[in-house]
Amino acid sequence: MSIEGPIRFEGPVECRVDRGGPLGVTLTGRRGAEILHVTFVGTAPADLPPRLDGAILERVGGDEYRIASGGERRTIQAQRVFVHRDVRQVFCGAVPTRPAPVVKRLFWRAVLAFAGSSLGRSVLGKARGGAD
Question: Average pLDDT in the 33-51 region?
Fold first, then answer.
């Protein structure tokens, strides 16, 4: 995903600055039902706080991006930008989980109970020793 139009985060946005590494800053926040991680390869603004509220991110041109939050605007110069979407909640909401059938649950309970008993450990030990 690239930044074509503005990205509007809802609520708090975490700002992680990588001072010594190749990544300038990573913004992590919510947009709708998904969580976005936007990572900039470049220089982070010196006055970037650890958290923003309701930030809007947009490309202003070339390698320049603007973060607006609470009336303040900050500019990031970045050679590359990576946008990752965490769609776990959307996916889990669309694909309901299916409980295991009762017979299968009872079977595995019995197998694990047997394996945990002294008789089961003895049988498994003999089976393992006989295979060598």
Answer: 86
